[in-house]
Amino acid sequence: MEKISKELGEFLKSHPKLVEELGTHILTQNKKSDKTSKGFVPKDAKALASPKMIKKIAMTFLKHKENNKKPLPKEINYFTIVGHFTARLNDKNKPLNQGQVSKILSAKSLPASDIKSMIAYKELMKLEGK
Fold first, then answer.
1. DSSP string for residues in the chain
2. pLDDT band for position 40 (50/70/90)?
3. Number of neighbours of residue 83 by Cβ within 10 angstroms
4. What's the rounded mean pLDDT across residues 34-51?
5. What's phi and psi for 12, nearest 5 deg?
6. Orientation angle between helical segments 78-89 and 112-128, nearest 10 degrees
7. How confident is the model over 95-118, as pLDDT tens digits?
8. In a 10 Å sphere around its CB, with 0-12 CB exposed, 13-18 middle and 19+ buried, how is residue 14 labelled?
9. pLDDT the model gives residue 79
10. What is the separation of C-alpha 126 from the centre of its chain, rounded to a whole number of angstroms?
């Protein structure tokens, strides 16, 4: 083990340029992982959103304590959010796109219009008996 560590030390001393390149590569990898963990930047803002993005919206706003988001009303749960945004995704006239998803994720809370429509839909289902 000591022999390997000596050889590695000698190799690193004799190739300072390689060590510098490896160091900068490691630093840039950390910056990339920080960007992806905080949120995402859409490749094409006008492209349709994916079901995975809709699930990310739901999980982001359900776990509001960990990410400093405002809490949701009690009647709104994971499936309500996923169902609402899936319906918006499947809308023929104006489907949900990646740019809208990134805007929603960067906001402190879900848009009030979305919350109101989710609550109204829940109340409608209660009236129908479903």
1. -HHHHHHHHHHHHH-HHHHHHHHHHHHHHHHHHHHHHH----SSTTSBP-HHHHHHHHHHHHSHHHHTPPPPPTT--HHHHHHHHHHHHT-SSS--BHHHHHHHHHSSS--HHHHHHHHHHHHHHHHHT-
2. low
3. 15
4. 72
5. -65, -40
6. 110
7. 999 999 999 988 888 999 999 999
8. exposed
9. 93
10. 32
Contact of 80 with 115, CB cutoff 8 Å: no
The torsion angle over the Cα atoms of residues 38, 36, 57 and 89, rounded to 10 degrees, is 150
Tell me the pTM: 0.65
Contact of 70 with 64, CB cutoff 8 Å: yes
Residue 108 has, within 13 A of its CA and on its CB side, a CA count of 2
Minimum mean pLDDT range among 26-30, 35-39, 47-51, 95-99: 35-39
CB burial readout 104-121, b (16+ within 10 A) else e = bbeeeebeeebbeebeee
**In 3D, which of 37, 60, 50 has the Cα closest to residue 108?**
60
**What are phi and psi for residue 25, nearest 5 degrees?**
-65, -45
